[in-house]
Write a structure and sequence with these properties.
Chain A: InterPro entries: BFD-like_2Fe2S-bd_dom, BFD-like_2Fe2S-bd_dom_sf, FAD/NAD-bd_sf, FAD/NAD-binding_dom, FAD/NAD-linked_Rdtase_dimer_sf, NasD-like, NiRdtase/SiRdtase_haem-b_fer, Nit/Sulf_reduc_fer-like_dom_sf. Chain A: Its cofactor is [4Fe-4S] cluster; siroheme; FAD; [2Fe-2S] cluster. The complex is a heterodimer of chains A (806) and B (108). By secondary structure, chain A is an alpha/beta fold. Chain A has 27 helices and 39 strands. In chain A, a hairpin with a 5-residue loop joins strand 28 and strand 29. In chain A, helix 7 crosses helix 17, helix 13 crosses helix 15 and helix 22 runs parallel beside helix 23. Helix content of chain B is 0%, strand content 44%. Classes of the chains: A alpha/beta (806), B mainly beta (108). Strand 39 of chain A pairs parallel with strand 2 of chain B, so a sheet runs across the interface. Bound molecules: siroheme (SRM), flavin-adenine dinucleotide, iron/sulfur cluster and FE2/S2 (inorganic) cluster (FES). The site of FE2/S2 (inorganic) cluster (FES) has 10 residues of chain B, from loops.
Chain lengths: 806, 108
Amino acid sequence: MAKKLVVIGAGMASGRMLENLGPDWQVTLFNAEPRGNYNRLMLSPVLSGEKTYAEIITHDADWYGAQRIDTRFGETVTKIDRNARVVVSAGGETPYDALVIATGSAPFIIPVPGHKLPGVVTYRDLEDTNTMIAASRPGARAVVIGGGLLGLEAAAGMAARGAEVTVIHLMGHLMERQLDPSAGYLLQKDLERRGIRVHCKGATKAILGNDRVEAVLLEDGTVYPADLVCMAVGIRPETRLANDCGLEVARGVVVNDQMQTSDPAVFALGECVEHDSQLFGLVAPLYDQAKVLAAVLNGETGRFQPVQTATKLKVTGVDLFSAGDFAEAPGREDIVFRDPGRGIYKRLILEGERLIGAVLYGDTADGSWFFDLIKTGKDVSDMRDTLIFGPAFAAGGTKADPLAAVAALPPEAEICGCNGVCKGKIEAAVQGGALTLDAVRAQTKASASCGTCTGLVEKVMALTLGDGFAANANPAMCKCTDHTHEDVRRMIKAGGLKSIPAVMQELGWKTVGGCASCRPALNYYLLADWPLDYRDDRQSRFVNERNHANIQKDGTYSVVPRMWGGVTTPDELRAIADAADKFNVPMVKVTGGQRIDLLGVKKEDLPAMWSDLNAAGMVSGHAYSKGLRTVKTCVGSEFCRFGTQDSTGLGIKLEKLLWGSWTPAKVKLGVSGCPRNCAEATCKDIGVICVDSGYQISVAGAAGMEVKETELLMTVATEAEALEIIAAFTQLYRENARYLHRIYKWVAKVGLDWCKDQMADLTTRRALYDRFLQSQSVYQTDPWAELAERPADWAPMKTISLEAAE
Amino acid sequence: MNAVTQRWIEVGPLADIPPQGARVVRTPAGCIAVFRTATDEVFALNDRCPHKGGPLSEGIVHGASVTCPLHSWVFDLNSGAAQGADVGQVATYPAHVRDGVVYLGLAP
Ligand code: SRM
Ligand SMILES: Cc1cc2nc3c(=O)[nH]c(=O)nc-3n(C[C@H](O)[C@H](O)[C@H](O)COP(=O)(O)OP(=O)(O)OC[C@H]3O[C@@H](n4cnc5c(N)ncnc54)[C@H](O)[C@@H]3O)c2cc1C
Ligand code: SF4
Ligand code: FES
């Protein structure tokens, strides 16, 4: 008599296993879903309308009939009795000689308030797909939580049916497990082009609604209205049956190389298993498992060995490929290729002579060739130089000489797309005497707009000038790019680039994620240019700005509360004294900036100290920032016998207007009540000298590594004008200077006359002032108040005590 | 045989370490900086720069490197070796993530 095989779950894995199973077994196949095997992967084309369900059925009634499989669809197995060797379902007990658990995975649901409301779905089976199809009427609003493979396929599918879709993703970029930030950025851009809104770094706080979903609320307060919410945040192996009957279960049902569980009569395969501490979420290894298990059941030998998997996203028109390992590790090297114009990004990860990972975006034609190199571990050292160009180059052996490629271009080939400048025109300009990039820019407009063609223009110049060519004298920002700070700033504005990965991709960064020198600069440029859109990246900030305190040589910090215009009160002084006592501050010092410094504070004490100082009405003095530091004042007309104006009052007003703003380098002000200049205003970044007739505003002083007197910008009659001009001038500096250049260095480059012109033009000045206030509406907040609420972030993650370590 | 050469100590959820950042684990033998890269790899190094004792946990993390916050020496997170012209070595510890939890390997 044939032996009885019971299979729980008619999914992708068990389907393949049954195809390979020999005739000796009498099979009973249970499935919780009211249908047999279909191609689950293809639910996405069904959702988007590119396929119908009928087209994705893999095994129909005829097939099961021919195999004489007893199908029990829509019947969930509720229990396994291993002693009696039966499984229990609504239809009673079914005996087995061998049992296969192939129950797949269950979607993970984040238990936020509202997660049980009608209208919240996951994405796993046909029912989910049909619910989403029904909800995706044109104009309907859908929110997808989770920007991984599944979430994005759900989003694209619903968008294709006309729904307005928003994707909320916890991490900084989409599909972070398969893609690096650059590829994630390109993907986001492609999805946005299809009308899908993407919200990264978004943590869901609650799903709102009375009888059904109405909206999704994020931790940052954003609310997205929603008629349907799809949670696609991950899966976990469906191990309940195995657990209940006492099989060995870790994260999945533990199996050996023969897919056998801890009970020799029970096998498991698919996403529900754990093999060698590894879980599986893509079908390729599951098919291998299926073949091994079929062989074992057929009485042959088989041994499961997991293979590398590659990922593709099934969204029509999005070309993405990732395989292997792309984490940073010693001895690993990256080869990066970017073609900003065509939205292409390729990154190969080499370890020694072998290719171990690949991320491709925009052009995935060579994906399988790279994948093969990864799997076979072939030595690629002899084709390393051209590896990134794919098999065509590897075979032909032609060296990719970039200069030769440019030389081969005909004179009418377009070099600068923005301004339609061809190669011949640049050659003519150079021959006519334009020997520098700036001269070529001025004469031809080539590379004068978005600037991404700068490298090409320089190559044309090099070819035309031969040895006479000297590359742009202004040095590149850092080793990660050939562009200068000025070019990067210009291109950020021209290209509407609003994130660090966007800049790195569109400007062809040569490294994967930048360095400690370019990241802080980019973070500043982005927040200065897009105050409302860009979100500050704390991790791209130097320690002092990240921790909102000055780090000291011994790793402690100093705390400087703001003392507006250098004026304080007995209450503030008492609070400072109390804080100094409470936190054992080793030194209390009056600074050169007219305020008090508490030095030597331990990092974990910072939040508590800040909250004490906050309670006394004090905020951070930003003594650590590339931003407004102090406004020094003198006593002025209120007290001094020589004072001409209320210099103290103006200083306080200026500090209240400017504090909290981030600037390319630190900004210090001084306001003196008369030309005796007791506030040392004439060596500050911006200084005001009060005179009988009004206010002399002068700029570009220095008293640090260089000493330099300020130069007069303008004299005005009223305090109101002085405030507006100083804020507008600060904004001019914020928008144009390169990172780490103090005002005096920047003015030396752009010229004081240019600054004067900008200030004299009322429209320009007013627009600058308005943009400054707009930025302040976001950034003028006290970081202490915000951070004091999260003391845990400032303490060690864990303290391992002596006992524990013994 | 097979002497136990290290103990794995749970130090907390990966989510507690910001990507491209670090957190400190305090031990009787000094602080250990646990780094998380942009690609969610974790590395553990002594939190003391061999130059003048700077807390490496406060440096900017780029790729699998960290730049010391005090005088900008750069260290490879894998080997703990100073990069470029600087010469120095930081002790490293094994670290890994399992089910979203970070474990540190310490000598028993
Ligand atoms: C606390 C203070 C010294 C004091 O005890 O008075 C101070 C302390 C530091 N200064 Fe200063 N400066 C202080 C007033 C000044 C002044 C005087 C002033 O502001 O009127 C100057 C000259 C004016 C100027 O800024 O040009 C000054 C010019 C500098 C410079 C040189 C800047 C330059 O562009 O040339 C640096 C280095 C830098 O910024 O790169 C610097 C850097 C530093 C740093 C932040 C060094 C660092 O990066 O770690 C010091 C932090 C020490 C610590 O452990 O906390 N400090 N520093 C003063 C804080 C003022 C405040 O209340 O915010
Ligand atoms: C929309 C979507 C797109 C995908 N795209 C891709 C892709 O492009 N590439 C890729 O490699 N992978 C993709 N996957 C993943 C792939 O589908 C899974 O890896 C694969 O289906 C897992 O196979 P399985 O047999 O382990 O589980 P499943 O296919 O999930 O089958 C398990 C079956 O067991 C049933 N079951 C569970 N418990 C019981 C019980 N107690 N009694 C009876 N029956 C039970 C379930 O109802 C289910 O039908 C995608 C998945 C989804 C949902
Ligand atoms: S002058 Fe400034 S930077 Fe130099 S030691 Fe004194 S506080 Fe530090
Ligand atoms: S202490 Fe680290 S570089 Fe000086």
